[in-house]
From TrEMBL:
Keywords: DNA-binding, Transcription, Transcription regulation. The lineage of its organism: Bacteria, Bacillati, Bacillota, Bacilli, Bacillales. It comes from the Bacteria. Residues 2-48 form the HTH lacI-type domain. This is LacI family DNA-binding transcriptional regulator. Pfam families: LacI, Peripla_BP_3. It comes from Neobacillus pocheonensis. GO terms for molecular function: DNA binding. InterPro entries: HTH_LacI, LacI/GalR-like_sensor, Lambda_DNA-bd_dom_sf, Peripla_BP_I. PROSITE patterns: HTH_LACI_1 (PS00356), HTH_LACI_2 (PS50932). The keyword Transit peptide does not apply.
């Protein structure tokens, strides 16, 4: 049987770090790339943690645990660029293990083309947005489905979501309360990937921005900048805004990575945040509080969303018939970047 030393030799990481990662030590600080590399090597070598071995021993004397699939609606590049979905996926994997479920499979929507992959699954957790029509092309034979971050039909499927409209209104409300009037928007495009096709999905953050600003009589279409949900695109969109003669005095930016890129563009232009331009962003990833100007942002409790999704699926597998939709609240975390217009 493979040992921790074998994994350390393969990954070129110390045995102590390998042990702490495999045993889910929450106190260790390690790059996500390193963590994934260690977990991949452990699976490749067939290594099993103490918890996994205990689960196997337990299953030998009890009925088999359910087989669960995780369907990711993001490409690898999208997940790498935006830690939001990555944190949900990791939370799902962690909670499945905590629940004693080690029979899991992970798929990406852009890599699937038929429903064959779900035929032996007892349940499926979907991270991200996928239409019901697309779901049927990959999973028309499975009954126990839980969506995280999307709810295509709450009369059929369990789901765990946040209220994007209310969350966005909270962010804009904070900027308006601070006295800002000329408010811009920087956001990205969310797509559904299936069979090498891409379908753009409506972003409620953008539509809420337009509705709120029109209601206040403050909407200016020249203040809206749409790219991709990446740090680089946040930088590029802010550079684009800076090329205009009329720069907004504040921005709502739809993700923290984009906001961090925007901060860099403002710094290069010798503008300070929040004195020259204020920012409120979205997600509250770990980097948000360590940005060059700590970000005021809408905090999304991704770990709790993941844990809730797993528990809903287990409950459904055990026999619950009525679908449940759980709304996880968000909160405004105020830091230095939002400042005041006074």
């Amino acid at each position: 049987m493979a040992t921790i030393k074998d994994i350390a030799a393969l990954t070129k990481v110390s045995p102590a770090t390998v042990s702490r990662v495999l045993n889910n030590d929450q106190t260790i600080t390690v790059l996500e790339e390193t963590r994934d590399r260690i977990l991949h090597a452990a699976r490749k070598l067939g290594y099993k943690t103490i918890l996994e071995r205990r689960v196997e021993q337990h299953n030998e004397s009890n009925k088999a645990t359910p087989s669960v699939g995780i369907l990711l609606c993001q490409t690898v590049e999208e997940e790498t660029s935006d830690p939001y979905f990555l944190s949900i996926r990791q939370g799902v994997e962690e909670e499945l293990l905590n629940q004693g479920i080690t029979s899991t499979s992970m798929f990406r929507l852009n890599d699937t083309g038929s429903n064959q992959f779900t035929r032996d699954l007892d349940g499926l957790i979907i991270v991200g947005r996928i239409s019901e029509k697309s779901l049927k092309t990959v999973s028309d034979n499975i009954e126990n489905v839980v969506y995280i971050n999307h709810s295509p039909d709450d009369s059929l499927y369990d789901s765990v979501v946040i209220d994007f409209v209310k969350s966005t209104e909270t962010g804009f409300g904070h900027l308006l309360d601070q006295g800002y009037k000329r408010i811009g928007y920087i956001g990205g495009v969310e797509r559904e990937h299936l069979n090498n096709q891409k379908m753009i999905i409506e972003d409620e953050r953008l539509t809420t921005f337009e509705r709120v600003m029109e209601k206040e009589g403050l909407f200016n279409p020249n203040y809206t900048f749409i790219g991709e949900y990446t740090m680089t695109q946040g930088y590029e969109m802010m550079k684009k805004a800076l090329q205009q003669n009329d720069l907004p005095e504040a921005f709502f930016i739809a993700s923290d990575p984009m906001a961090i890129g925007a901060l860099r563009a403002l710094q290069e232009a010798n503008l300070t945040v929040p004195k020259d331009v204020a920012i409120v962003s979205f997600d509250d990833i770990e980097m948000a509080k360590f940005a060059s100007t700590p970000l005021t942002t809408i905090k999304v409790h991704t770990k709790e969303m993941a844990q809730t999704g797993v528990k809903l699926l287990i409950d459904r597998i055990k026999g619950r018939k009525i679908p449940l939709k759980v709304l996880v609240p968000t909160e405004l975390v105020v830091r230095q970047s939002s400042g005041s217009a006074d």
